């Protein structure tokens, strides 16, 4: 093995602000920094090969953030907000039928009129172009995989991963040392369960005195449907079948432009049954008699999956550390009841940018931006999350039917009177600790895919365009192989094979001995394994820059 001390020294570049992640939060922060002070030097690193390649969301966007960031965006003929919401439907699904809930029963914050159905991937491409017009340097294909600190423990920048490292960990013939990007402040906008954010939260104890973060896995397909099945501007949310009443989750159909329909399924990752497969439940959902007719004669165009932060108000960590801050989904700003987070991502990026710009103008650098952490709870972000803070805990505690009912009442009370009889409820255990031994549950036999409406994992992964160079270190790090055998397999029945939506993990018999196989090239970067492994024995880190899915119109 090559000694780390023998590696060439990193080249470095200095900026006023370094931003990790070209999602809505990171790009909004970059744009806002340049709006406040055009002389600031700003760089955005993006691990995807192009901006938007790794972005996956429903998505119905509340324009409150974009309206503040780019007030005249409607005058831009290239803007991506093409489909305004025209109808809002809420369905409860049973095995053979559905009931539509009257819209007047829903709290006002659940109303989607005035919002837009979009491809969030296209939104980030548009934002990146706006940022570059202002002089922001955007570097796609560069995964930040190390936080750089000074002797006082303050963050001074990040380093991109080395390229051309071979499977055995040694530099290959095309080896290139990563770059160090140094800044007065570093903003972390990697999205949910980002690898750098996870390290920073641990190092600086940012989650101390907070509830554990909660997660869901969101699976999505993009379809081209027959014109007679297409209803532009229709937003349809549903819950119930195929999940039982003790397993949290929901589903959506969003009708975009050009006869396209986004169909998605969200499963809360605090589920108990290790035999459950989120991917298979998603496929079953599409066969429901209230859902299947939409896709008759249609064509599936895309597939992807992504973890979603669901802890909300009580799970948001401290946002600042010496030298930087967390923004967007790295901070956990998703409103789980509304199934929306991009508006808060934009607002948080703007807020952090304003505090960083103010600090730099005052001659400060690499200290703690306390004002940002203090401001968010009284901002639009805090007001948005506080009203729904008990929805997830009530759902988890009371089950789907009673939990959703009481959660809806709680949202009404928070909206009308600014209070809740429950105060602020806790979430309890982290999601990995919710999984129960396989012996406590009956195996689930899922139907075989028909290749028309329902599909297998590998054909789905093909549509995600994911790609990883095989001759590189596996980016899904198994900490203790023996623990994986005696616990993940022997106690929990090998749930990694089911919770992963991309066929990454398998238990294979080799001479009668079960072997844990990691097909890292299939990974769509959803981070579910990092969250749901019952022993926290799998650590997701970025592969070489640019690798992973290449989502189009997702």
Automatic annotation (TrEMBL):
Hydrolase recorded as keyword: no
Record-listed E.C. numbers: 1.5.5.1
Gene Ontology molecular functions: 4 iron, 4 sulfur cluster binding; electron-transferring-flavoprotein dehydrogenase activity; metal ion binding
Keywords from the named record: 4Fe-4S, Electron transport, FAD, Flavoprotein, Iron, Iron-sulfur, Metal-binding, Oxidoreductase, Transport, Ubiquinone
Textual note on the cofactor: Binds 1 [4Fe-4S] cluster.
Cofactors, names only: FAD; [4Fe-4S] cluster
InterPro entries documented for this protein: 4Fe4S_Fe-S-bd, ETF-QO, ETF-QO/FixC_UQ-bd, ETF-QO/FixX_C, FAD/NAD-bd_sf
Any coiled-coil regions, as ranges: none
Entries under Gene3D superfamilies matching the protein: 3.30.70.20, 3.30.9.90, FAD/NAD(P)-binding domain
Role this protein plays: Accepts electrons from ETF and reduces ubiquinone.
Protein name: Electron transfer flavoprotein-ubiquinone oxidoreductase
């Amino acid at each position: 093995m090559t000694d780390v001390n023998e590696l060439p020294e990193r080249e470095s570049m200095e900026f006023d602000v370094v931003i990790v992640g070209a999602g809505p939060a990171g790009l909004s922060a970059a744009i806002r920094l340049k709006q406040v002070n055009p002389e600031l030097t700003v760089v955005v690193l993006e691990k995807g090969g192009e901006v938007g390649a790794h972005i996956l969301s429903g998505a119905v966007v509340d324009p409150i953030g974009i309206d503040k960031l780019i007030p005249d965006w409607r005058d831009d003929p290239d803007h991506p907000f093409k489909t305004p919401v025209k109808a809002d439907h809420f369905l409860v699904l049973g095995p053979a039928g559905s009931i539509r809930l009257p819209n007047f029963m829903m709290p006002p914050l659940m109303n989607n009129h005035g919002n837009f159905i979009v491809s969030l991937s296209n939104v980030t491409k548009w934002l990146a172009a706006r940022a570059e017009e202002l002089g922001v340097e955007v570097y796609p294909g560069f995964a930040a995989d190390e936080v750089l600190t000074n002797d006082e423990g303050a963050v001074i920048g990040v380093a991109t991963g080395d390229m051309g490292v071979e499977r055995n960990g040694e530099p290959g013939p095309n080896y290139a040392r990563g770059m160090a990007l140094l800044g007065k402040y570093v903003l972390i906008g990697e999205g949910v369960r980002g690898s750098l954010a996870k390290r920073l939260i641990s190092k600086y104890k940012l989650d101390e005195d907070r509830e554990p973060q909660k997660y869901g896995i969101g699976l999505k397909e993009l379809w081209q449907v027959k014109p007679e099945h297409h209803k532009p501007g229709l937003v349809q949310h549903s819950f119930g079948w195929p999940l039982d009443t003790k397993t949290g989750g929901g589903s959506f159909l969003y009708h975009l432009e050009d006869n396209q329909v986004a169909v998605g399924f969200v499963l809360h990752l605090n589920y108990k049954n290790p035999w459950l497969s989120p991917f298979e439940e998603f496929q079953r959902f599409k066969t429901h008699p209230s859902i299947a007719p939409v896709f008759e004669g249609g064509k599936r165009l895309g597939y992807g999956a992504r973890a979603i932060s669901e802890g909300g108000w009580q799970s948001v960590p401290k946002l600042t550390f010496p030298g930087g801050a967390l923004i967007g989904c790295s901070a956990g700003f998703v409103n789980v009841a509304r199934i929306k987070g991009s508006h808060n991502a934009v607002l948080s990026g703007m807020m952090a940018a304003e505090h960083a710009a103010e600090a730099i103008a005052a001659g400060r650098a690499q200290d703690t931006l306390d004002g940002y952490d203090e401001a968010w709870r009284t901002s639009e972000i805090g007001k948005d999350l506080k009203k729904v803070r008990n929805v997830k805990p009530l759902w988890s505690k009371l089950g789907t039917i009673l939990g959703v009912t009481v959660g809806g009442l709680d949202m009404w009370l928070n909206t009308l009177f600014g209070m809740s009889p429950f105060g602020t409820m806790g979430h309890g255990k982290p999601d990995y600790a919710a999984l129960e031994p396989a012996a406590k549950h009956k195996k689930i036999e899922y139907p075989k895919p028909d290749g028309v409406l329902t599909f297998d994992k590998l054909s789905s992964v093909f549509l995600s365009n994911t790609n990883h160079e095989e001759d590189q270190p596996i980016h899904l790090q198994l900490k203790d192989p023996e623990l994986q055998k005696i616990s993940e397999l022997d106690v929990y029945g090998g749930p990694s094979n089911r919770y992963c939506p991309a066929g990454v993990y398998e238990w294979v018999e080799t001479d009668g001995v079960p072997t844990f196989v990691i097909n890292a090239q299939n990974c769509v970067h959803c981070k579910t394994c990092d969250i749901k492994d019952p022993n926290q024995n799998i650590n997701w880190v970025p592969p070489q820059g640019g690798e992973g899915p290449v989502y189009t119109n997702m």
